[in-house]
Amino acid sequence: MDARLAFYGNPVGARFLRSLASAGKVVTDSPLPAAVQELVKIRASQINGCGACTDMHTKDAAHAGESPTRLHLVAVWREATVFTEAERAALELTEQGTRIADAAGGVTDEAWARAARHFDEEQLAALVSLIAVINAYNRVNVLTRQPAGDYRPGQWG
Question: What is the pTM of this model?
Answer without folding.
Answer: 0.95
